[in-house]
Amino acid sequence: MFENKNYWAIILGGSSGFGLASAKRLAKAKMNICIVHRDRKGAMARIEPEFQEIQKEGIDFKAYNLDALSEEGRKTVLDDLQEHLTKTNGKVRTLLHSIAFGNLKLLVPIKKHRNYDPLEKLAKQLNIDKEKIREEATKIFLEDQIDELMYIAKEPEYNQEFFLTDEDIANTIYAMGTSLYTWTKDIFNRKLFANDARVLGLTSEGNEVAWRGYAAVSAAKVALESMSRAIAFEMGPYGIRSNILQPGVTDTPALRLIPGSTHMSAHSRLRNPLGRLTTPEDVANVVYLMSLDESAWINGAIIRVDGGERIAGS
User: What is the dihedral of CA 121, 125, 127, 131, to 10 degrees?
Assistant: First the structure.
């Protein structure tokens, strides 16, 4: 779809999850790819083959392993890319913000409404040790993915020693929220955007629903959405469309860092009308669709990519 147009996609956080899947999908459609990621040397054995697969699509490809959130890192990327695009007459069609760098601490120690164990009466009725039931239920829940057992399996563990600070919140809001504008502004000021450009960010259901340990990330997602609307409104006259995608729960490295993610995944599979989790490829397909000419009239929106997960009842 993008062959011979010399369009580029800049993907922030493109070495795994949504970012990597989107890079592959756009490269398949012949869009040139610039990935900015931050990974340890040990992780590159996994990442390099993924990048080589992208390059096999016959597109122009650049990757930068550095801190996308630092001024120096952003300048390094855009200085080099600007020089290259000036020589080749390329333009940035799509900017995808897929940075997952946030704090997942609780606000306060967990206090339950009631100290009630649902296994207590069942174990007594069957004359079986309740912890034996819980142990077996947890094993089957984790190994065989029998989601219904989440209710009697071992509960998620949370760090109840260290709690969220103001600095944690501020850093998370910038990393996963307002840095969308920082990158958009710099690309705009350098006149690297195409006449019809797309800015995309990723939010989650945590923008409205409270999850334990997710407060800082939730605040960042709301900031991201607000910034995207402002970009859509104020930069729209310059041909820049800005939208936010809201994937359902997806098995990514970022999800696995969230306390209770195993139970969260089980709950999502049980309530999703299509009976499964969202995949990175599901989201990458929508990133591709939002980059097409035909999506030009979508601006300032939040688009759910979740198979109906958000609207499903109990």
Answer: -30
Is pLDDT above 90 for 32? Answer: yes
Do residues 200 and 144 share a domain? Answer: no
Distance of CA 3 to the CA centre of its chain: 27
Residue 222 inside a domain? The answer is yes
- Looking at the structure, tell me whether residues 146 and 173 fall in a common domain: no
Dihedral sign, Cα of residue 266, residue 267, residue 272, residue 277: negative
Let me know if residue 206 belongs to a domain.
yes
Residue-wise pLDDT tens digits, 46-63? 999 999 999 999 999 999
Asked whether the whole model's pTM tops 0.85, one would answer yes
CA 138 – CA 104 distance, rounded (Å): 24
Identify whether 314 is part of a domain: no
- Angle of helix 215-234 relative to helix 179-189, nearest 10 degrees, comes to 30
